[in-house]
Design brief:
Layout (H helix, E strand, L loop, with lengths): L3 E10 L10 H11 L6 E2 L6 E5 L6 H20 L4 E3 L16 H10 L1 H4 L5 E7 L3 H11 L3 H8 L4 E2 L2 E2 L5 H6 L14 H13 L13 E3 L5 E8 L4 H23 L9 H14 L4 E3 L6 E3 H19 L2 H14 L2 H12 L2 H12 L2
Antiparallel strand pairs: 1-3, 1-4, 1-5, 2-3, 5-9, 6-7, 8-9, 10-11
């Protein structure tokens, strides 16, 4: 069974006002006081962000437990210095982000200007184990059209600088400003993948391989495919669903590769349109069907994804829970829908953040 690990980026906020707080260094220092060898929490581009990474897990119940534990630990460390955490992919309230002081972050600020300043966006990255780079690239080639469905399911960023963007995942639109971000056409081999990466680094537009921001890429540090399209999910259960579907996609793609089935091979132009549609609509309207690239109701497209990975999920015992969670999301909406419902009910973005803090730690 393939292992799965999740990286989540959390927003540090004031527990009273809901405003983002640039306190990541203090939170990390507090975590290090508890455990000098802790390797769970990491700094990120902006000082208002805190990242954690789970250990690789084979079972989804174990993954769920670790995500919940890491969120609670993050909240505990943050609380000890006067702030808290929220699983929000953008800040609903206005914010002036501050870039971290590291050499890498300062290079990005100098080279990319306002793009770096405005990248206070928070994602969920899923690592799924693969046997080799060759298998990993074959997987990347075959999962591309399906990744937009993960974007729609995880959509959790409707607000930006105090306004409703009319998008469900505005984070993904901001993220696309990086020069290396987005979908890719089939590479066909690991050699071609690595050559493309080397050519991109050689341009000098990006600093190194760590700035290869493909929607799905080979991890530099682990024998995994890293899927990077999702907003950080408001509910931990949604994060587990995304991880479950990601593993199903990887396993299904690897089997298709071994059976000699070719990738769908949609152009980047079509994949970008599908990604835009998912960001705009989330689960509330139509999406582009990954096989046909034609508009269909979101529910139909989600069911198509479940059918596509159904055999793989059934073998790991995850199919029934994935179906149930998808049904619930289609009923109540993703995190973006929850945020908008809270805003309609309370009329206050501050109250939206306060309730999302509670949900994050539930």
């Amino acid at each position: 069974m393939r292992t799965v690990g999740v990286e989540e980026e959390l927003l540090l906020v004031d527990p009273e006002t809901g405003e983002p707080q640039a306190l990541s260094a203090a939170v990390l220092a507090r975590a290090a006081q508890d455990d000098a060898e802790q390797d769970v929490f990491e700094k990120e581009l902006h000082n208002q962000m805190l990242e954690f990474a789970t250990h690789p897990q084979s079972g989804m119940e174990e993954l769920r437990a670790e995500i919940v534990r890491c969120r609670k630990e993050a909240a505990r460390h943050a609380g000890e210095i006067g702030c808290t955490v929220a699983a929000l992919a953008t800040s609903p309230l206005p914010v002036s982000p501050s870039v971290g002081v590291g050499r890498r972050y300062q290079w990005m600020a100098e080279h990319y200007g306002i793009t770096t300043q405005e990248q206070l966006v928070l994602g969920c990255h899923v690592h799924v184990s693969v046997e080799s780079d060759e298998e990993g690239v074959a997987v990347i080639d075959r999962i591309q059209p399906w990744l937009t469905v993960l974007s729609a399911l995880s959509a959790n960023s409707p607000f930006w600088q105090g306004k409703d963007t009319l998008y469900n995942s505005y984070r993904s639109r901001v993220w696309q400003r990086w020069p290396s971000a987005g979908p890719t056409e089939p590479f066909r081999s690991a050699e071609r993948y690595h050559r493309r990466v080397a050519d991109m680094v050689a341009t000098g537009v990006i600093l190194d391989e760590g700035m290869i921001y493909f929607d799905a890429r080979l991890s530099q540090r682990f024998p995994t495919v890293e899927i990077r399209v999702s907003d950080v999910c408001l509910h931990s259960g949604t994060a587990v669903l995304v991880a479950t579907l990601a593993r199903g996609l990887v396993e299904t793609a690897a089997r298709d590769w071994r059976a000699g089935r070719e990738p769908l091979g949609h152009s980047v132009s079509l994949l970008r349109l599908a990604a835009w549609r998912a960001a705009r609509s989330g689960l509330t309207e139509e999406l582009l069907h990954p096989a046909t690239m034609r508009r269909m109701p979101a529910e139909t497209v989600v069911r198509a994804l479940l059918d596509h990975v159904g055999e793989a999920l059934a073998e790991t015992g995850d199919l029934d829970r994935a179906r149930a969670t998808c049904t619930e999301l289609l009923r109540i909406g993703s995190g973006a829908g929850v945020q908008r419902a809270l805003m309609k009910e309370t009329g206050s973005l501050r109250d939206v953040v306060t309730e999302c803090v509670r949900i994050t730690q539930a």
